[in-house]
Amino acid sequence: MSHLRGLNPGLIPGLIAVALLCPCTACGWGERTHGVINRTAIDTLPDDGPVYLKARKTLITRSAT
Questions:
Q1: Pairwise CA distance, residues 52 & 39, whole Å
Q2: Domain definitions of the chain by residue range
Q3: Global confidence as pTM
Q4: What is the chain's pLDDT, residue by residue, as a tens digit (65 residues)?
């Protein structure tokens, strides 16, 4: 941690507080990619898999967040 030697020690708690209080959003892949993943997961279910998931594939894909 030699890169922190020149940093004022009083700033470290402030930086930690800002990092914890700053609202951050983790969007990940986004809605479209989650929908693709959901659709692919449902498509790869075996034939004797949960029928109710296959029946609601469009709803599940559209409501992916």
A1: 14
A2: 28-65
A3: 0.55
A4: 556 666 677 777 877 887 778 766 666 778 888 899 999 999 999 989 899 999 999 999 998 87
